[in-house]
Amino acid sequence: MKCQYCEKPATFHITELTEPSGPQVMHLCEEHARGFLQKDTSSPAVSIAGALAKQLNLGQTKKELAELDQKECPVCGISFFEFRNTGRLGCPYDYTHFESDLTPLLSNIHDSLEHRGKRPRRAAASADSQAIMIQLRREMEEAIDREDYERASEIRDELRRIEESGTGESAK
Amino acid sequence: MKRNTDFSELANSSGEWLRGTGPESDIVISSRIRLARNLADFPFIRRCSDEDRISIERTVRARMESIEGWEDIRYVDIEQLSEIDRQFLVERQLISREIADADGSRAVAIDPHEQYSVMINEEDHLRIQVMHSGLDLKSAWDRINSLDDKLEGTILYAYHPKYGYLTACPTNVGTGLRVSVMLHLPALVITQQIEKVFRSMQRINVTVRGLYGEGSQYTGDFYQVSNQITLGHSEEDLVALVGENVVPRIIEYERKARDFLVRQGEKDLHDDVSRALGILSTAKKISSEETMHYLSKVRMGVNLGLINDVAVGTINKLFIHTQPAHLQKLHGRLLGSSDRNVQRATYLQRHLSGAPGTGDLN
User: Fold this and answer.
1) What is the DSSP letter of B181?
2) Whole-number Å distance between alpha carbons of B319 and B220
3) Which of B40, B164, B172 is opposite residue A115, by nearest beta carbon?
4) If we measure between CA atoms, which residue out of B43, B17, B44 comes closest to residue B31?
5) How many CB atoms lie within 10 A of CB B326?
6) What is the rounded distance in angstroms from the CA atom of residue B64 to the CA atom of residue A84?
7) With contact defined as beta carbons under 8 Å apart, do B116 and B143 qualify?
């Protein structure tokens, strides 16, 4: 059998199981197989784009996608559109705000939705208090910019209090 | 911690991970583990203002300074470095290409033996990495786990009870752990079996990359094998997947391919690796690519006992020390490409020709 792309004998017979149109069998020579397999070991942004594309093929309509793209995180302001294009999230709260949109993606990438590894010994602040901390820090920077040092120092104390409330107990 | 951006001493030495010792070091160059971590009270890097980046750098630096036993750690402000020094640290694998080319406040803390480093303001706020010589993932994991504990003692990480450590890219979420083993696989390349090995690995959540990370050309027959997923498995399981399940199989294939090459024509192979050594030790100018190509052959020759008077550690070091920024640091000035080719040849000659034993760099 010849390679699908050239005259050389096909020495690789690859079955691609994740094509939207169903399983697809490829017959390739060594060189074309290399190109094909290397394409698969892609960068995170590309694999996220791929995973998202698959997800969209599985049922989301154009209208739903357009709405999703508009959705913005109240803490960092990133839109789902921006995330989709860059493959990078804007802040820890995105995992909470976009949770229902991200879970199919996470399950696609990792084949799991639950962390089973190490847990910090200090309790990380809850998703909400992490969001509050990011917002407070931004307010503090703004206060410093307008030279309102009294307000800035109040915010600093508030931040310290939240951070310390997260110490000492287990995260479990 | 000491602030130090003078790399002239480093240019003459090399990190312990290059010494060519440790289990399976004829095939495994190094075992590397990295953890991605973020501070709970800042946005991820892409949404950080310049002030945020400065605050993150200051906060982390101040907290690292309070860690006991970190007195000898070198702290480097990457923003202040010249392009050549940034390139130097990339060649040495102490920082990533991404952080070298980024803008704004960013830094790296490096231990004196170059076995671990912590990058600040990379794609995530913190990227901790540990690098050991040979196949030595278990002790690399123990070390990075304890480093992470020390940092966690002073820094509040972004963490979610269900999704684990939160990272800028969802491909790292959960453990934030990437295990990477660097392998030298010349016999699998010569016998054209490398693609089959790639293919078998695609099915078990492992990826393969060239020596210098993402998107680079594969040079010198070096391949990096890493775990693809980070969520849903414990760190120990991910370490075992790469270190016990995948890498030993590849090592076995490479050994079989080397045996095959020896059986098929030892004279031809002996001739080939000896010619490679001949070119490296007598050429008057040589490109980086050609150097990698021939060093790879010589390395295999040394490991098969066909070349006796050169140490594997020397070859490992030459791969790094003949790269552009290293040559220029050693030479003490900027060199154009053709000057570098001359300097590279001189350098190789000095370390590879002459009486047995003189090839050792240190």
Assistant:
1) E
2) 9
3) B164
4) B17
5) 25
6) 35
7) yes
Nearest by CB to A89, from B44, B49, B149: name it. B44
In this predicted complex, what is the ipTM? Answer: 0.87
Work out the minimum CA distance from A101 to partner chain B, whole angstroms: 12
Which one of B159, B175, B194 makes the best mutation probe of the A interface by having the most chain A beta carbons within 10 Å?
B159
Task: Name the residue facing A37 among B41, B198, B229 (closest C-beta).
Answer: B198
pLDDT of residue A52: 65
Q: How many CA atoms lie within 13 A of B223 on its CB side?
A: 23
Of the candidates B206, B247, B204, the one whose C-alpha atom is nearest the C-alpha of residue B228 is B206
Residue B262 CA: distances (Å) to CA of A116, B107, B195? 46, 48, 21
Query: Residue A65 pLDDT more than 80?
Result: no
What letter does residue B79 receive in the DSSP assignment?
A: G
Q: pLDDT digit string (tens) for B287-296?
A: 988 898 899 9
* Residues of A in Cβ contact (< 8 Å) with B161: 115, 171
Q: B91: distance to nearest CA of chain A, Å?
A: 21
Taking only the tens place, the pLDDT of each residue in A85-113 is 888 999 999 999 999 989 888 988 898 99
B293: phi then psi, degrees, rounded to nearest 5: -60, -50
Residues B321-336 have a mean pLDDT of 91
Model confidence pLDDT, tens digit, residues B200-220: 776 677 787 756 433 344 466
Q: What is the mean pLDDT of residues B115-142?
A: 96
Please state whether beta strands B2-3 and B74-77 pair in parallel, antiparallel, or not at all (unpaired). parallel
* CA contacts within 13 A on the Cβ side of B32: 27
| Token pair belonging to B113 | 């033996």
**What is the average pLDDT score of chain B?**
89
CA neighbor of B175 nearest in space, from A156, A94, A112: A112
pTM of the model: 0.84
